[in-house]
Write a structure and sequence with these properties.
single chain; mainly alpha; 17 helices; about 75% helix; about 0% strand
Length: about 475
């Protein structure tokens, strides 16, 4: 009886301690966001450092739960990836005006992934004398830009640069994941034609399924009655992602296509099927989904990087060989990025985009997903830690050194933007602004005419005054 009571008390105390710890992490994450806006230091760096601090406390009290930490990290990474891509997708608008940014970001992401993957694979092969296929398996995660770090870090950039970075990092995640799983699923296939057929078939099947599912989900959820349905939608998306992975499909495409379709219903629902859409209902779902995905992505991203921080061992920084290899890999990132950005933006500034190529969530997630039969006995995993820290620090410096903010709007532009949010037409806006300008000009002319008359009257009064 006494044992049960003590055991229950022990569990209760630990449950409350866990609640306190989780609450403190969320509070610290909000504080880090505030600090990040003021200092340009990415909040993920601060979260990783918080995780390092927690690890030091755990070591001091000799508390170790490595298996639990790694399984938690994998689950958080998957859910966080889904939330981040969905959050980015429902923010992206497809139009003719944005097409140049879309195709350029896609090509830059694809070429950067390929150049970095094969270059880093060659480095791993030469330094660690590893098999070329295994070298490529380890190189792909290192070649993927982290949208989990990029998206919350580029809010201060001009709109076109911000959109380019969001598109590029999202495409980098999707293409990198597809490349990684295509490779590990086709290792041992000797026929090149079979591999190419498998890749093309997988992409086509995934896109077709994604479009069909997205149409069905949009039509279904706009007709659901009740207030509690957004988390059901997210649960369905996570379920589809997991099922797709089990079927060896590129599940992230499902999330991306759904978000794009939901935010661009006027483009995807045309002709007769346009009548199937309740614009008011879709607008409400989109607004609520923005809030839910933003908050959910924030929470998942917070715990992922804090938990990742608890796995870091800074003694790797004392190994000069590992540090040297890591810095060579980082140099590959920036050299290839400079050449690609210059090729596509020859007459435009490529700052600070040049420095924004961090590694993070996807790199760690895919690293933990490497099958046992493809694991390397010679590759040092501390390289991943050093590349994540180095690219994040360089990005921080670039954002601080070449920070750009949106130019202040003229009063007329502020008025026009406010009226536009209230669904007023451009003609009404221009009429309103011109009326204000006309009234200001009339008032100015009136003051100009009145002033000389007052001065003349003043002079007349002085002449009529009796002289001494």
């Amino acid at each position: 009886m006494s044992f049960n009571k003590d055991f229950s008390l022990y569990l209760t105390m630990n449950a409350y301690n866990l609640i306190i710890a989780l609450s403190c992490v969320i509070i610290f994450s909000h504080i880090f966001n505030f600090v990040s806006k003021r200092t340009k230091v990415p909040s993920v760096i601060l979260l990783i450092l918080l995780g390092v601090g927690i690890k030091l406390v755990m070591d001091f009290y000799e508390y170790s739960q490595d298996a639990l930490i790694f399984s938690t990290l994998e689950v958080l990474g998957i859910v966080g990836l889904i939330m981040i891509v969905l959050e980015a997708a429902i923010d992206l608008e497809l139009s003719k005006e944005k097409w140049p940014i879309i195709w350029k970001s896609f090509v830059v992401a694809l070429l950067s992934l390929m150049v970095c993957a094969f270059s880093i694979s060659f480095i791993i092969n030469q330094v660690f004398h590893e098999d070329p296929i295994i070298s490529l398996v380890y190189a792909i995660p290192l070649s993927i830009m982290s949208s989990a770090i990029v998206i919350p870090s580029v809010n201060g950039l001009f709109e076109d640069k911000k959109e380019f970075m969001i598109y590029e990092s999202t495409f980098s995640d999707i293409l990198g994941i597809m490349f990684f799983y295509f490779l590990i699923e086709n290792v041992g296939t000797e026929n090149t034609g079979t591999v190419v057929y498998s890749i093309i078939g997988n992409i086509v099947i995934t896109i077709v399924i994604s479009i069909a599912i997205s149409y069905a989900l949009v039509l279904l959820f706009q007709r659901l009655v009740g207030d509690v349905k957004l988390f059901m939608l997210i649960a369905v998306l996570i379920l589809l992602y997991a099922i797709g992975k089990q079927l060896h499909l590129s599940s992230l495409v499902i999330i991306l296509v759904f978000g794009l379709l939901l935010n661009n219903t006027n483009l995807f629902f045309f002709g007769k099927i346009k009548s199937w859409i309740d614009s008011k209902m879709i607008s409400g779902i989109l607004k609520d989904l923005h809030l839910v995905t933003r908050e959910s992505a924030f929470v998942v991203r917070t715990f992922f990087f804090v938990v990742f921080g608890t796995t870091i061992d800074f003694r790797a920084l004392l190994n000069l060989e590992i540090v040297g290899v890591s810095l060579i890999i980082v140099a590959v990132f920036y050299i290839s990025r400079f050449l690609l950005l210059k090729a596509f933006f020859l007459k435009k500034s490529i700052l600070p985009e040049l420095f924004i190529t961090p590694r993070g969530l996807i790199t760690v997630l895919l690293f933990f997903s490497i099958p046992a039969h493809l694991e390397s006995d010679t590759f040092n995993s501390d390289i991943i830690l050093i590349t994540i820290l180095t690219t994040s620090i360089i990005m921080t410096w670039g954002l601080i050194r070449f920070s750009e903010t949106e130019p202040e709007l003229e009063p007329e532009e502020v008025i026009a933007e406010a009226l536009e949010k209230n669904n007023q037409s451009a003609e009404e806006v221009s009429y309103f602004v011109s009326r204000m300008s006309d009234e200001a000009e009339k008032q100015s002319e009136k003051e100009t005419k009145t002033k000389p008359e007052e001065e003349i009257e003043g002079q007349g009064d002085s002449e009529n005054e009796p002289k001494d």
